[in-house]
């Protein structure tokens, strides 16, 4: 609280006369003036100096409070409040300047929000599934493919030889045999061989 107001309230509470302030002197040049104020409360008197009348009056009231046995006022809190006001004004000014320099339509994200967005984005993007064949499966697939193609080509050649010559050297060389057909073509009739080959071809 202002020591001038505080001293006046104390006198009002005591139902005594209000403090009286008198300018004792003014000295110094215009740029560096010094004022001396005197305050009188009852029979007590105290003085205070300052660069202007208001400060000198304030210091005189503070000196009177100390002289009467009261605790000193706390101008620190007032100065802190003023600093807070200045800081708030500075923050508002800096915020306005930031808004003026930031292009419209562009929002600056905080690091926390940016990390959350990246985390959610990594969860939604799924890695495409790639199925790889093991060497064993690959060999089985290739062998079945080649065996099928070889069987079809050999079957065609064997059928042509049987129709033309009545015997098939190709069937004997590859060891072609079945339920009704053996490796020895002499013991199997050509008609049986044709029926067997037709069954394999699905005819």
From TrEMBL:
Residues 89-103 have a biased composition (Polar residues). The keyword RNA-binding applies. The lineage of its organism: Eukaryota, Metazoa, Chordata, Craniata, Vertebrata. Residues 2-70 form the DRBM domain. Residues 83-106 are annotated as: Disordered. GO terms for biological process: anterograde dendritic transport of messenger ribonucleoprotein complex; germ cell development; intracellular mRNA localization; protein localization to synapse. It comes from Eleutherodactylus coqui (Puerto Rican coqui). SMART domains: DSRM (SM00358). Keywords: Repeat, RNA-binding. One of its GO terms (cellular component) is cytoplasmic stress granule. GO terms for molecular function: double-stranded RNA binding; mRNA binding. Pfam families: dsrm, Staufen_C. This is DRBM domain-containing protein. InterPro entries: DRBM-containing_protein, dsRBD_dom, Staufen_C.
């Amino acid at each position: 609280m202002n020591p001038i107001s505080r001293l006046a309230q104390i006198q009002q509470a005591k139902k005594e006369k209000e403090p009286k302030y008198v300018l004792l002197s003014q000295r110094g040049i215009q740029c560096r003036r010094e004022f001396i104020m005197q305050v009188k409360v009852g029979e007590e008197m105290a003085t205070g100096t300052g660069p202007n009348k208001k400060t000198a009056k304030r210091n005189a009231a503070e000196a009177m409070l100390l002289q009467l046995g009261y605790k000193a006022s706390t101008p620190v809190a007032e100065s802190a409040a003023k600093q807070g006001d200045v800081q708030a004004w500075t923050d508002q000014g800096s915020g306005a300047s930031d808004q003026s320099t930031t292009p419209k339509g562009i929002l600056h994200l905080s690091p926390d929000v940016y990390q959350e967005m990246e985390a959610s984005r990594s969860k939604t993007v799924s890695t495409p599934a790639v199925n790889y064949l093991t060497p064993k499966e690959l060999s089985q697939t290739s062998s079945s493919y080649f065996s099928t193609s070889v069987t079809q080509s050999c079957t065609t050649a064997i059928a042509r030889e049987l129709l033309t010559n009545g015997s098939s050297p190709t069937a004997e060389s590859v060891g072609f045999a079945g339920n009704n057909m053996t490796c020895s073509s002499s013991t199997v009739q050509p008609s049986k061989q044709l029926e067997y080959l037709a069954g394999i071809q699905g005819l």
